[in-house]
Here is the input.
Amino acid sequence: MQAYKGILTALALAAASGIASAADEVVVYSSRIEDLIKPVFDAYTEETGVKVSYITDKEAPLMARIKAEGENTPADLLLTVDAGNLWQAEQMGILQPLDSEIVKQNIPPQYRSSTGAWTGLSLRARTIVYSTERVDPKELSTYEALADEQWEGRLCLRTSKKVYNQSLTATLIEAHGAEKTEEILKGWVNNLATDAFADDTALIQAIDAGLCDVGIVNTYYYGRLHKENPDLQAKLFWPNQQDRGVHVNLSGIGLTKHAPHPEAARKLVEWLTGEKAQGMFAAINQEYPANPDVAPSEEVSAWGEFKADTVPVEIAGKRQAEAIMLMDRAGWR
Amino acid sequence: MIHSVQRRWYPLSFAVAALVLLPLSVLLLSWHEIDTTIWAHLWETQLPRLLGNTLVLVLGVAAGVLLLGVSLAWLTSLCEFPGRRWLDWALMLPFAIPAYVLAFVFIGLLDFAGPVQTAAREWFGSGVRFPRVRSTGGVVLVLVLVFYPYVYLLARSAFIAQGRGLMEAARVLGRTPWQAFWHVALPMAWPAIGAGLALAMMETLADFGAVAVFNFDTFTTAIYKTWYGFFSLTSATQLASLLLLAVMLVLYGERRARGVPRASAERKRAAPLYRLHGWRAFAASAWCGLVLLCAFVIPLIQLLVWIWQRGRFDLDSRYVGLIVHSLSLGALAALITVSVALLMAFARRQAPVRPVKAAVGLANLGYALPGSVLAVSIMLAFSFIDRHLLGPAAEWLAIDPKPVLLGSLGALLLAYLVRFMAVAFGPLESSLARIRPSLPQASRSLGVGGPALFMRIYLPLLVPGTLSAALLVFVDVLKEMPATLLMRPFGWDTLAVRVFEMTSEGAWARAALPAITLVLVGLLPVILLIRRSARL
Here is the structure.
């Protein structure tokens, strides 16, 4: 019958489309989107002749897939946004140490795993954004101060479901302890001008449009909007410059435990932390290079220099679950 | 003696059920360990509110899709009013718009920083107040506008199939048009309407994309949060299996309420029953036009504006590949899923015994799970087969033991089959139910049986149902995101994948280009189908 033919066709297709893996190839599972990685990988292929294949998805499904594939995984590298995810990958036992002197030289220790299982490639500062019309930057000081009464009905936040906010909260817990942090978060929630947004872009647009006066965002979202609309009525502010510094997270890469091409993968990671790739990798998305010898792009430099929090980014992973529970208790949706 | 005929359906229905059961058993197995910290936390701070939200959402969407779907189907199939001819098929168009796309268009257009409120502030001053856009009402409205076509499509073909004879009989027997509608047409069409309603409710329960754009917390968002935030896939699948339980109740209720399907032959579309005049005709045109405007025309215009502003530079040769991939996946999945669903519908009809019924019921459960959870369960199940069955087999045959299923096109198509079985099954079953058993019986007595019976009697009568089923699966596969993302072979990026990449970075405007391409690609079969079924 027709139906059986259909099934047979499908099975035949299934058998025919098995993946071939060549020797000069590196396979990357990435939660950083194609537009942000393809140009860099293309440059690598051009320089070395090594092909880089990748698929993109969210990190949790990718990690589940690597784990399920086990020894059969085609993936050499896992590229994610947010260190918390890489820390989790390490806990799941799907990564192995990179063991590269070059990476150690290129990337400062707080932006790497303490066991060497992964390294950061670009830094993303999560900072305060304010309305240039309704806020004098002198009124601003720290993340914590956004809980003050002065900001009642003026603060905008993104959803607590986003890992960026979970990481920020994790570092707050690290700095102040759970009790004090809950107080701060409750203050923030109390000051909200509107329900939490689903993304940073909408938040900045809301400040521009006059719905709220201050918010917390990753800088590259601001950069993107500012590029499209130079008259944006919002600016970035670097908080906590008198104490621990601006919260910094990263996009990073780890070597999978059963990588079929570990040597080729290590070379790619080393190249990615080098000068040429670092400038490119960060500039595509207006982020900061993780290699301190490489300067950020002109646009990014124009936002000014700042002191960054030096707490190891691993904290974001270690305290992620605690942070989420705390955010839930504080009523941050 | 009947039993031996019925038993012939056992292997097939059990095999398909097993395919669905495989990922579901991954869910059930998750209960072997319970993370009490996470559960206690969820229970104390989350669950009561989430359950309330979910209930309101599902009931709101159910009421909305019934109101829209049935009223529109009734008007376009049995009444005559200005614009009916094209509204008839145009009202199916919103089906091509994915829920997450309508959600971000809705918010982009109407929220505080959007063009509507900005313009209003410019004209009337900053004091002007709007109702909250990112609210329960907003989510319900968006989901109703994207899911009503399920009810519309099925109710419409049921009304057309009923024809005017019954209604005329009711009128002759002294019923008013309204009484005839409530007491004759609606109960007769209920199996079809119920099937559409069940699909809409399952979609609502499983939706993540649209509710995430609204930051509206439902049971499904809690599943994702548990997985992506707490990184507890175990607790997430436990939550998902509870969701599944809720869905089984919905389906059971729908089956009970549906009652015994009544047979009535497909017939040629009759002349309209009611010619509307004056204000009635105007109201009918206005109602249909308003729905079309909100669910399709305005979103399309907003997407076009965004493309003009930001996305037009993104259009390049890659789109050819994206479109081809989307189309081939949709077509292959539709072919496979409809074929299997048809066999299952036959199994249930020919062998209405408990084991077969149970198998068919199970096979339809995949639709209700949140896409990512189902995708990961399927992936885990497949990797288990790869490792413990196919791997050793390959070793035994002395072939390089590479994973066969995972990362292959076949696995993705199987995943679609598991996920969209119910979508194909609904329309097929209700159109099969309309074929009187006397028809094949007569044909058998005239010596036509077996394949010839299928080809000459069933197939022609099943064409409308089969087409509806194929269309629904095709468009659903186009829009499908999580399974495609997780299981696509290298290089098989689709339009939905592209939409995901843009939206995951909050670049809604840049998502407009792949979104509109997706809508346009999905439109062709919608128009094709609806025009064809309109001629019947």
